[in-house]
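Page 47, continued from p. 46.
Same chain as before, 96 aa.
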Amino acid sequence: MMTNRDIEKGVSFIEKMERLTDLPWMCDYNLSFHLSLYRPAATAHLLKMIQHAHYVSHRYVHVSYWAGNSAPASQEEHRRPFVERSALYAGRHGVG
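Result:
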């Protein structure tokens, strides 16, 4: 189960990604964001699967990003679970 600290970590990665324009750093924070969501489950196999998926899709993310500048939409998708489920996020960002 995610704690408020886990949620705060996830939110911090979203906020960092929103401020960046350097795609390699965005990809690193994106991986960190996804790992932070699943780390509380304490399932090493799942974390390895996420890391592997990130590794094999990394080159395609670059092409997709530069072709359509999908970063704003992506961050909105990352933010949605926090807006819908987290009073911490909602209070911090004036949502709800």
